[in-house]
């Protein structure tokens, strides 16, 4: 991260072209996406009274945080970071989240599902149940507590079907709910940030990016990520096409055969619903090559909760999910 400002403000095209003959074309493509995202972030800052940036420590939120750094430089990022912590996160990701918040000198606000459980607003059916679907409850409570009128997130349209339906400026009503049939047009990059009393916006600056765009941008900008995004050894159990990591929260069941594989995570979330993929990709260059040939989306390959039902994400978003 010491080279962050150099990667942001100095022209490295010549050195990049020595490594990759298509570097100039790649920079042009990423420059367009970056400019759009920065414009969106500045629109939020200009039009909204109290926006927050949803930050989990995953690769997409890492990119959005870096874009916010560039959007408001030389000022520091004034937007508070908000993480809805399920209590079932990978420790590498939580350590990374805290380090990056300190590095960017951001005000990190962490709200825990444990607190919602203690208040009785979340009731689990059993202790090892995935907490991922319940994040919307704590998020809506946090939005009310912080009086946030906009939540900036790292969702992308290519991730899955429900997110493909969503606008860049996505309106939520006074109950935090999303209606996919009642959205505003966004012609010529004109965004409407008005909300009804008690309502809020979800804003997605990298909505038009792909997983490959994200990794190419991470490479270009030299953005640090949690180590679990890269190939490492991990004990897993094979269930169909999915590798289920062996943890205290996801222990092997009777008859399961535990094996150690070289794997990495394409997306990171709650331990109970996030699976790695078998992969030798130990560098960003390796990951870019792997992503370019992948036939399954990152969530389709690794999110156990999404695989249960194609309508799961859309229903959650209607209830206030990210």
Question: Could you give the topology of this structure?
Answer:
Blueprint: H1 4-9, H2 13-19, H3 23-47, E1 51-54, H4 59-72, E2 81-85, H5 91-103, E3 108-112, H6 113-119, H7 135-146, E4 150-152, H8 161-164, E5 169-172, E6 200-203, H9 211-221, E7 232-239, E8 242-245, E9 258-264, E10 277-278, H10 284-292, H11 298-302, H12 304-307, H13 312-318
Parallel strand pairs: 1-2, 1-4, 2-3, 4-6
Antiparallel strand pairs: 5-6, 7-8, 7-9, 9-10
Which strands sit side by side, in order, in the main sheet? Answer: 3-2-1-4-6-5
| Structural class by helix and strand composition | alpha/beta
Q: Which runs of at least 5 residues are low in confidence (pLDDT < 50)?
A: 1-19
- Give the CA-based shape: globular
- Assembly type: single chain
Strand content: 5-15%
Indicate the CATH class of the largest domain.
Alpha Beta
Spatial separation of the terminal alpha carbons: 28 Å
């Amino acid at each position: 991260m010491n080279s962050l400002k150099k990667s942001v403000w100095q022209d490295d095209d010549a050195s990049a072209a020595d490594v990759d003959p298509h570097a100039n074309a790649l920079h042009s493509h990423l420059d367009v996406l970056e400019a759009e995202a920065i414009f969106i972030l500045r629109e939020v800052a200009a039009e909204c009274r109290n926006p927050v940036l949803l930050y989990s420590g995953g690769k997409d939120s890492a990119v959005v945080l870096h874009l916010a750094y560039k959007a408001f430089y030389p000022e520091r990022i004034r937007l508070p970071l908000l993480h809805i912590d399920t209590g079932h996160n990978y420790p590498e990701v939580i350590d990374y989240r805290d380090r990056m918040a300190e590095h960017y000198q951001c005000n990190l606000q962490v709200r825990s599902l444990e607190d919602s459980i203690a208040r009785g607003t979340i009731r689990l059916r059993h202790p090892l149940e995935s907490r991922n679907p319940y994040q919307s409850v704590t998020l809506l409570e946090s939005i009310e507590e912080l009086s946030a009128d906009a939540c900036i997130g790292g969702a992308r349209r290519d991730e899955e079907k429900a997110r493909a339906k969503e606008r860049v400026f996505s309106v939520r009503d006074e109950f935090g709910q999303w209606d996919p049939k009642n959205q505003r047009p966004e012609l010529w990059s004109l965004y409407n940030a008005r909300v009804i009393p008690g309502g809020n916006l979800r804003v997605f600056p990298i909505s038009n990016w792909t997983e490959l765009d994200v990794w190419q941008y991470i490479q270009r900008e030299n953005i640090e990520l949690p180590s679990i995004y890269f190939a490492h050894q991990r004990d897993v159990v094979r269930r169909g096409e999915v590798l289920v990591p062996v943890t205290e929260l996801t222990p092997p069941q009777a008859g399961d055969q535990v094996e150690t594989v070289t794997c990495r995570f394409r997306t990171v979330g709650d331990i109970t619903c996030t699976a790695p993929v078998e992969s030798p990709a130990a560098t960003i260059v390796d990951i870019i090559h792997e992503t370019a040939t992948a036939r399954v989306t990152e969530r389709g390959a690794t999110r156990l909760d999404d695989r249960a039902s194609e309508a799961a994400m859309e229903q959650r978003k209607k209830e206030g999910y990210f």
